[in-house]
């Protein structure tokens, strides 16, 4: 009853603190640390001295250590200006314009110094400002982390809240449950009586199982704030290093200096920064390492400076333009020398400037070369870099404010932490992903179980359901096994044809089941997503073998290290919540509670379970806990030995299937065959599986074993673990199999769909995880990175080779496995079956060595999917670096923990998940997203757009600057290299900064070849970026050619149309001012109309910018011409009085613009008519109104746009359909063969006449 449960729960919470786990655990968790040699301390590598509870001594040398604040910014107040200037002038164009600005102060400059210096200052200033803004955002994120609060001892037994950044070495802190450790701490005490605490290190190593830490016996009594008034101690330990799994030190502690004793320290007492306190109310610890000295920060790499491939290629384009500049400058200087020598009268001039000396033509030619470098410098687009900076910044704002990239659950959104890599998002070919917290959401759900060889909770998965819908058949309920055994609706069974009535009945039953599932979810049972009426609501008591059922549920309720706690979310409920080392244990306890076996409380020696007996009544039973043989990575199993109320002794065991099966007795294998089939089916669904077994132990057998076990447990030395393992083997045998369970390591919402869409877009995904192989493979199936028909290569060291620990033998073993796998691929390359590679940590360590890594990568790249298990943070970074180097492909790394920082920084693009874990991954990333599923839209939509926008923008910049710069050169040739400048100096400034800047920015920010919905419908469009189609050298040279042709047309038509005839009614002909203004006007019109032809998605902003830029040119002419002649010079009232009234001016402008744009227009018509690209076809279909979105042609194009994939949901459905069709065919052939070979059929065929009569 609820009224009776509440006080019990309160008592359970209090008893929780008094449990002594050290008396229960038997293996290495609580063995005493080995003694550390005192002679080591004070020597190099062991110089750290920490005065506990006396941090004032660490304010001065030699014991002054770094502060606890952590920074990820690129600059500080002192380094910002010099470092940012260095970054800007690393760019070739900026360096060139710095030289030009310096030369502008001399007499060589054809323009005023201001017109050359002002654009450079503006361009560099905007870029530096943008860098400063982005670094300011990093600073704010650092400030958020450094400002987290923790309780710190300030004296007299008082603790106050202080920010992390104020912590110093020696401070005593109190960390509460579910809080992160602010620095590396030495554990002093905890809420448990024996100083145990549970730590979640998922943010460091990706493992979900909790780590057990225990303080020293000497500091146990300091478990209350007031007691720290008298606490003093000294820690002597190793210097700061990056090893997460080692710690060496001694604690010198005593009531006074005279009786101080040195206690050895190990990793069991060491708490790492950014790990999390779980299942423990509080701990006290002393700060040992702070800030940059902490192990997690030591494992992080310095944030590299990343440049996109497009930007690096743009540098090469600048080199080409610079070569063109040198060429035409050389031509101009040579021409100047030649014509000066031919025109003898020039040598008679007495008044010449310093740059022109007819008497010394070689010197004059060299000076003319320098002058030409300045004059034709507009070939180099000075505003290109700043325009790209502005565009990328605005693109990042659009990404940050995309409502489809906002996670309502967490309230977080996608954030571009740097805008330098926007276009890289559209060229990714390889994704290297973490598992825990990235693909999964760290929540377990109980899904299925197999008891007595019968599977329960057997709803079909999404793969089978999708296949059945496409095949237009029902396979939810009507399946039969070839062997005639009872089976669940899984792949081990066959389908038969069914009637329409049966289909209707099946669908109704499915709907009922879905209603049951919905009811479960609505009831708020977290961790329990099970659907089967045969077990729910006490229905299992009507089964044929209730004893085995009850034993199965007892294993679930007793074989664990969990603790029941009051359910604060449902205060009046009789349902309990649980805390345990692993999320699987919590899930099992919740499931046992739902099935009627509620683990209700625990004492030091007993466990109490409320059970449902065969009469359907609830009874509370006490089980004496005799021994607990805990789970470890080597044992792969866990056992408890208990004595029930009748005095019988049972061993309950759970573990990996192969481990348990090897320990079954001859009479315990009754259900092994059926259970094995169910395990295979569960694994294909991506579920984690575990097998349950038990054994009844005689009293005499237990007494004998317990004596041996106690002796082994008392051993102190390196052989202790081996002795305990051997003794445990003696009792964990002759087991009786009960069944298996399957839990779902729940994927984040939309992960499978996201992976499917990314695969269709042509991306390969590698999974790098610190988890064990079995878990990683399960997630591989759940996320559709693996499928049942794949050839799965397992790369791991054999036990014999691993035990010898000889490097050469291990290398040979790995090489042999790699070669064998490659031979399989070569022999079966004609088949469509895909290949996948699974590598464990030790094998990976060998495979990444210099002499093997090429063989390994050659095999890995060939496989459709690669899963690396037990991977350390440094191995993640190394794999990323090698893949990037070996394949030359664009790599993206995504993770959520501090163990992913190296990988994120090493990849071309690093993405951090801003989920429930710490901020280390986010702070090191280029982009942060709330969940993995947002990667789909970030890449396929924004990546595609950004790549195409930036590519178009750069090509257009090259085009317009060639058009503008070469007209100056052509006029120079026309005037026989006289040195006259066609345009006014302020025309030159206006062109890039004002008259053509806004349209190109709108192109880079707002252009869309197709809408976001179509990008997702046609993922093959993404491959345009992977292939580099829009910024290939073919396109670059094409646009350069277009610019050269356009400049020729503009120069020739303006000169040869205006020169021969009168310009005005009075017979006046054009002079250089008229020709310059008309030519400049045609350029402004042409380049702005050209961008209108490029744009495929117009908005009102683009119309305003394009036509407004042209209109602003005339406004500028009016104002500039209205200035006094000493300022406007030859442009004084030029538009109003000379050019504007002349019809010839307007006719020439119209004629030149049309002819200049005609070549590109013809090219565009030919390409779209005869050689259309994918986006052209879609644009014609959608915007040309040829078809509607649900038309047959549209659906056909949508289907053909998906790249044939070997991974992902769609690929698994296709493979499942082939499998089911094959099964159906086999079933039909079996039926036909059975009928053909039946006696009745033979009698009919042998006596046809008799039968007829």
From TrEMBL:
The active site is at residue 434. Keywords: ATP-binding, Magnesium, Membrane, Metal-binding, Nucleotide-binding, Translocase, Transmembrane, Transmembrane helix. Mg(2+) binds at residues 434, 436, 896, 900. It is an enzyme of class 7 (translocase). Residues 50-115 form the P-type ATPase N-terminal domain. It catalyses: ATP + H2O + phospholipidSide 1 = ADP + phosphate + phospholipidSide 2. It comes from the Eukaryota. One of its GO terms (biological process) is phospholipid translocation. InterPro entries: ATPase_P-typ_cyto_dom_N, ATPase_P-typ_P_site, ATPase_P-typ_TM_dom_sf, ATPase_P-typ_transduc_dom_A_sf, HAD-like_sf, HAD_sf, P-type_ATPase_IV, P-type_ATPase_N. GO terms for cellular component: plasma membrane. The chain crosses the membrane at residues 96-129, 317-339, 369-388, 954-973, 985-1006, 1036-1057, 1077-1097, 1104-1123, 1143-1166. GO terms for molecular function: ATP binding; ATP hydrolysis activity; ATPase-coupled intramembrane lipid transporter activity; magnesium ion binding. It is found in: Membrane. Its EC number is 7.6.2.1. Residues 922-1172 form the P-type ATPase C-terminal domain. ATP binds at residues 434-436, 585, 631, 654, 688, 769-771, 870, 876, 899-900. The keyword tRNA-binding does not apply. PANTHER family: PHOSPHOLIPID-TRANSPORTING ATPASE (PTHR24092:SF157), PROBABLE PHOSPHOLIPID-TRANSPORTING ATPASE (PTHR24092). Belongs to the cation transport ATPase (P-type) (TC 3.A.3) family. Type IV subfamily. This is Phospholipid-transporting ATPase. The lineage of its organism: Eukaryota, Viridiplantae, Streptophyta, Embryophyta, Tracheophyta.
């Amino acid at each position: 009853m609820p009224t009776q449960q509440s006080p019990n729960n309160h008592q359970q919470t209090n008893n929780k603190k008094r449990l002594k786990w050290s008396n229960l655990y038997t293996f290495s968790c609580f063995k005493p640390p080995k003694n550390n040699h005192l002679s080591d301390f004070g020597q190099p590598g062991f110089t750290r001295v920490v005065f506990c509870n006396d941090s004032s001594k660490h304010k001065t040398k030699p014991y002054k250590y770094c502060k606890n604040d952590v920074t990820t910014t690129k600059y500080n107040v002192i380094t910002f200006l010099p470092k940012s200037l260095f970054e800007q002038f690393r760019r070739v164009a900026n360096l060139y314009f710095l030289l030009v600005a310096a030369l502008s102060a001399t007499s060589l400059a054809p323009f005023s110094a201001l017109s050359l210096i002002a654009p450079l200052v503006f361009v560099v200033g905007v870029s530096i400002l943008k860098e400063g803004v982005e670094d300011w955002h990093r600073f704010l994120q650092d400030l958020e982390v450094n400002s987290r609060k923790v309780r710190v001892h300030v004296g007299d037994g008082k603790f106050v809240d202080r920010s992390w950044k104020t912590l110093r070495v020696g401070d005593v802190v109190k960390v509460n449950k579910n809080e992160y450790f602010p620095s590396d701490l030495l554990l002093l005490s905890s809420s448990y009586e024996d100083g145990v605490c549970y730590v979640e290190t998922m943010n460091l190593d990706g493992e979900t199982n909790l780590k057990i830490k225990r303080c020293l016996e000497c500091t146990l009594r300091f478990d209350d704030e007031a007691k720290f008034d008298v606490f003093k101690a000294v820690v002597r330990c190793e210097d700061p290093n990056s090893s997460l799994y080692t710690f060496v030190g001694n604690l010198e502690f005593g009531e006074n200096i005279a009786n101080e004793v040195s206690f050895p320290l190990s990793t069991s007492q060491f708490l790492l920064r950014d790990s999390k306190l779980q299942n423990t109310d509080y701990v006290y610890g002393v700060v040992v390492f702070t800030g940059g000295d902490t192990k997690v920060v030591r494992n992080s790499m310095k944030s590299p400076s990343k440049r996109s491939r497009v930007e690096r290629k743009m540098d090469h384009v600048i080199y080409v333009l610079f070569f063109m500049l040198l060429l035409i400058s050389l031509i101009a200087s040579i021409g100047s020398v030649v014509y000066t020598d031919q025109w003898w009268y020039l040598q008679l001039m007495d008044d010449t400037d310093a740059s022109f000396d007819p008497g010394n033509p070689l010197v004059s030619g060299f000076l003319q070369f320098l002058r030409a470098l300045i004059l034709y410098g507009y070939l180099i687009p000075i505003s290109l870099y700043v325009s790209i900076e502005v565009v990328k910044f605005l693109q990042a704002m659009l990404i940050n404010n995309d409502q489809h990239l906002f996670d309502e659950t967490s309230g977080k959104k996608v954030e571009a932490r740097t805008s330098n890599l926007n276009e890289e998002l559209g060229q990714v070919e390889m994704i290297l992903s973490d598992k825990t917290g990235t693909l999964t959401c760290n929540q377990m759900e109980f899904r299925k179980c197999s008891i007595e060889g019968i599977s329960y909770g057997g709803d079909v998965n999404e793969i089978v359901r999708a296949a059945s819908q496409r095949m237009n058949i029902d396979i939810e309920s009507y399946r039969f096994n070839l062997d005639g055994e009872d089976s669940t609706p899984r792949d081990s069974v066959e389908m038969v044809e069914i009637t329409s009535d049966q289909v209707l009945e099946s669908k109704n039953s499915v709907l009922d089941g879905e209603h049951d599932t919905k009811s479960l979810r609505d009831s708020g049972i977290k961790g329990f997503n099970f659907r089967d009426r045969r077990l729910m609501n006490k229905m299992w008591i009507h089964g044929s073998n209730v004893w085995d059922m009850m034993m199965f549920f007892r294993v679930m309720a007793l074989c664990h290290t969990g603790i029941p706690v009051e359910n604060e979310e449902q205060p009046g409920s009789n349902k309990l919540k649980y805390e345990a080392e692993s999320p699987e244990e919590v899930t099992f306890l919740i499931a046992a509670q739902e099935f009627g076996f509620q683990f209700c409380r625990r004492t030091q020696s007993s466990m109490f379970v409320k059970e449902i007996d065969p009469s359907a009544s609830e009874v509370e039973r006490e089980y004496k806990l005799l021994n607990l043989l805990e789970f470890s990575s080597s044992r792969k199993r866990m056992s408890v030995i208990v004595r029930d109320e009748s005095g019988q002794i049972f061993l309950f065991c759970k573990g990996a299937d192969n481990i348990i099966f090897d320990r079954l007795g001859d009479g315990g294998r009754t259900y092994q065959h059926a259970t094995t089939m169910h395990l295979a089916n569960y694994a294909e669904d991506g579920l984690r599986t575990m097998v349950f077994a038990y054994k009844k132990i005689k009293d005499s057998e237990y007494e004998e074993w317990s004596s041996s076990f106690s002796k082994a447990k008392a051993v102190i030395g390196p052989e202790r673990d081996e002795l305990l393992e051997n003794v445990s083997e003696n009792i964990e045998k002759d087991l009786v199999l009960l069944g298996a369970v399957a839990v779902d390591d729940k994927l984040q919402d939309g992960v499978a769909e996201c992976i499917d869409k990314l695969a269709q877009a042509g991306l390969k995904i590698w999974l790098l995880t610190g988890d064990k192989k079995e878990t990683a493979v399960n997630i591989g199936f759940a996320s559709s990175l693996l499928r049942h028909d794949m050839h799965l290569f397992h790369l791991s060291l054999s036990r014999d080779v691993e035990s010898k620990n000889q490097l050469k033998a291990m290398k040979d073993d790995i090489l042999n496995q790699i070669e064998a796998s490659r031979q399989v691929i070569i022999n079966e390359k004609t088949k469509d079956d895909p290949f996948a590679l699974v590598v464990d940590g030790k094998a990976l360590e060998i495979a990444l060595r210099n002499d093997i890594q090429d063989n390994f990568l050659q095999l890995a790249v060939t496989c459709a999917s690669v899963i690396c298990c037990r991977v350390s943070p440094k191995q993640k970074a190394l794999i990323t670096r090698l893949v990037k180097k070996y394949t030359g492909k664009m790599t993206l790394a995504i993770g959520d923990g501090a163990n992913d920082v190296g990988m994120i920084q090493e990849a071309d693009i690093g993405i951090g998940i801003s989920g429930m874990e710490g901020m280390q991954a986010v702070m090191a990333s280029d982009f942060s997203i709330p969940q993995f599923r947002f990667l789909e839209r970030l890449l396929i939509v924004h990546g595609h757009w950004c790549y195409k926008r930036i590519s178009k923008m750069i090509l257009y910049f090259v085009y317009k600057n060639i058009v503008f710069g070469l007209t100056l050169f052509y006029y120079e040739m026309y005037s026989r290299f006289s040195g006259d400048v066609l345009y006014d100096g302020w025309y030159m400034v206006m062109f890039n900064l004002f008259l053509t800047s806004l349209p190109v920015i709108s192109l880079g920010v707002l252009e869309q070849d197709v809408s976001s919905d179509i990008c997702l419908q046609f993922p093959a469009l993404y491959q345009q970026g992977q292939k580099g189609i829009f910024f290939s050298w073919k396109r670059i040279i094409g646009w350069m050619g277009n610019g050269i042709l356009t400049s020729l047309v503009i120069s020739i038509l303006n000169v040869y149309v205006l020169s021969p005839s009168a310009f005005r009614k009075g017979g006046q002909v054009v002079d250089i001012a008229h020709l310059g203004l008309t030519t400049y006007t045609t350029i402004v019109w042409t380049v702005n109309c050209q961008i209108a032809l490029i744009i495929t998605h117009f908005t009102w902003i683009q119309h305003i910018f394009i036509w407004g830029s042209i209109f602003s040119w005339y406004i500028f002419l009016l104002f500039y011409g209205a200035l006094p002649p000493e300022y406007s010079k030859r442009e004084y009232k030029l538009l109003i009085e000379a050019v504007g009234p002349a019809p010839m001016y307007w006719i020439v402008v119209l004629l030149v613009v049309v002819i200049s744009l005609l070549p590109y227009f013809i090219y565009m018509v030919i390409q779209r008519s005869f050689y259309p690209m994918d986006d052209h076809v879609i644009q014609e279909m959608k915007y040309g109104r040829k078809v509607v979105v649900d038309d047959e042609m549209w659906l056909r194009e949508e289907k053909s746009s998906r790249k044939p994939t070997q991974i992902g949901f769609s690929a698994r459905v296709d493979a499942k359909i082939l499998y089911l069709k094959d099964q159906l065919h086999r079933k039909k052939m079996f039926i036909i063969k059975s009928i053909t070979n039946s006696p009745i059929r033979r009698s009919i065929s042998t006596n046809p006449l008799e039968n007829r009569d």
